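If you are new to this repository, start here. Below is one unmodified record pulled from the training split, so you can see the exact layout before writing a loader.
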Amino acid sequence: MKNFNRLDAEQRRAKIYNIVSCIVICLIAFTFLFPLYWIITGSFKTKTEILSSTPVWIPSEWVMTNYENLMSKRSAPLFDFTINALKFNLFGYVFTLGETITITGPTVPAAIRWLVNTVFMSVTSMLLTCLTAAMAGYVLAKKRFFGKTVLFSLIVCAMALPKQVILIPLVREMSALNLYDTIWSVIIPIVGWPFGVFLLKQFAEGIPTEMVEACRIDGASEWRTFTDVMFPMIKPGVGACAIFTFINSWNDYFMQLIMLMGTKELTISVGIATMQGENSTDFGILMAGSALASVPIIIVFLVFQKYFTKGITMGAVKG
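And here is the target side for that same chain:
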C-alpha cells in the first residue's frame, strides 16, 4: 500500500512538473514571438492605428500602404559591377590594356537591392567562413606543428575580443585595399571567424586519428583526405557553423553601418534606418522593412534546423 501511495505521489509530482514546464515554455515562446507578431501585423496597419495611444492588437483593415511606400521611396539598379582596364608600368611608361566596363542591371526599388546585397553578403560570408574554418579546424585538430598551442590560444582569445576594439584597424585595412564602401568590406572581416574555427576543431577532434593515418598510408593527398573523409564526418558541425555565420552576418548592423555608405551598397537593415526622417519617423515603413528582412533569416533557420540542433548537441558532448 505504501509503495502504491508513493508511486501515486510521484506521478502527481511529475504531472505538476510537466504542467509548470509547459506554462513556462509557453511564456518564453510568447516573449520571443510577440515582437515578430507586432512587426508583421504593424506592417499592415494604417498610420492611425500604428500611432494610436491604445494598442491595436489586430488591424481593423489590412493595407499594403507601408510596403508600397517602402518600394516607392528610393530606387537603385538591381546589380552593377565594374571590370577595370589593366594598367601596367614598363620602363616608366604606363600602358593600358582594354577599357573599363560597367555592367548595370535594371532599376528596382532600393529595398529589393538592399535585400539582394544582404543575402549575397550573408551567403558568401557563410560559404567562405565554413570552408576556412573547416580547414583550420582540421589542421589544428589532426596536425602537429610548431606553435600549434600558441596559435589556438590566440584564436580562443580572439573570441573574447570585442569587435569595436579592432574597428579602426579594419576600416584602415579596407581603405588600403580599396574595398571600403563595397559589400566585400563587410564580408572579408567575417571570414576566419574564431568561433567557427573553435567549433569545427572540436568536431574534428572527435574523428579517430587512425582514419587520417589510413588515408595517408593509402596514398591520399591532404586535400583528398580532407574532402573525402574529414569534411563528411564534420558536416553537422559545418551546418551549425553555417547557421551561426549567416545569422551573425545578417544581424551585424554595427559593422554594416561603419563600412557601407553609398545607397546602392547598403544592406536592408542599414537602408531602412536611413529612411527615417530627421524630425519624424514613419514606423509603418520601418515595420514593413523589418518584416521583409526577417523572411530570409527565418527560412534559413527552418531549412537548417536539424543541422543546428545536431551541431549544438554534438559540440556539447565533444567539448
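Two things worth knowing about this chain: The chain has two domains: 2-42, 109-318. The first strand starts at residue 75 and ends at 77.
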